[in-house]
Amino acid sequence: MTDLIASRDLDWHPPPLAPDYRSSQLRAPQNARLHYDPTQTEMSGPTFGHVLLGKLDDDLILNYAQAGEAAIGPRIVVHGKLLDENRRPVPGKLIEVWQANAGGRYRHKRDGYLAPLDPNFGGCGRCISAADGSYSFRTVQPGPYPWPNGGNDWRPAHIHFSIFGDGFAQRMITQMYFEGDPHIALCPIVQAIPGDAAIDTLVARLDMDATIPMDIRAYRFDIVLRGRAQTLFENRMEGL
Amino acid sequence: MADLKESPSQTAGPYVHIGCMPTFAGLEGMFHGTDLGARMITGDPMGDRITLSVRIIDGAGDPLTDAMVEIWQPGPDGGFGTTTGFSNWGRQPTCADTGDAVFETLMPGAPQGQAPHVFVWIAARGINMALMTRIYFPDDTNRSDPVFTRAGDRAGTLVATLADQGFSHIIHLQGEKETVFFDV
Ligand SMILES: [Fe+3]
What we know:
heterodimer, A: mainly beta, Protocatechuate 3,4-Dioxygenase, subunit A, B: Protocatechuate 3,4-Dioxygenase, subunit A, 4-stranded mixed beta sheet, 4-stranded antiparallel beta sheet, 9 strands, globular
């Protein structure tokens, strides 16, 4: 018996064309996506072991810093669980993150924002979900930043996430936002998501229970991958 | 019955390389100085080595130079198990000058019930949810492949072109030649 990945609810996700997000105008395919049920190609995918990870890969405060120094900005730990739609933990999966520094500047040759680079902040990290699906990394809270979209556009503070699942059908990239950020309601990238309930799932909550006194504040962010829909016999899995 | 909803997708943005290929992005020494997926040939595997060059063209006819392309493919035996000296997964940026994402890989075999193919996953600024497509090869068996035939009279957009050291493939995001993208 093999489980099949549940179909994706495309109405829950941003459509390819979101006219207020100008970059989508020339990059959105105009034909509808053709559906097929995942074959063994999409049910499988790369696996990554803990041996991959360096000691500071999950610590953006220190992983680009000179010895004895640290990134500047509000210290936070971002943590949560990687789950599937059936609320089952998804262990052993690679989570990669990237973000701007506390001033809203990326360490990237194409980012020319006025805010200065922080010599001790690189802006990337990674970790692998634990047996119970939990993950965490330490970082500094990124700043909002302006971006060229034709108007006075500022991204809410956010952290980019890239997540692997059991197979490519579950693979995803998304962004995490911060509770209370007024830019969430103004951002055409966020608002490309059709519903407020969906947007709300990308908003991390301040988590005082996991906050360490006199050290670091915690934000909680759970990530949900597609679940298993039906159970089929192996011989129906071949081809379609 | 599902009681949670999948996390909604958001664009990878223009700086995806910082997180997924930091060495390429210029972050010296990050993650041991090796970008994941940069090399698919890691030893001396059996099979035919090919260069697969992928270019993505936007609605204005310009190549994307800030995208990240991942591929996932069967090994020469048509399976997704381990092939010594080879990784079935590769990840490349599109080149800032030419727009080409270049994969040094092995010619895929045919998985049971399917023709030889490479699954392609594209993330970039302006793409709200990563695009999924497949690359097939000039091969008569494509006509009996269930995904290829599903693409109907647009299936030709999925077939790579024979090139010097392997194959090249152009993915059109819009227009007359728009590539078939899948919801899978
Ligand atoms: Fe960003």
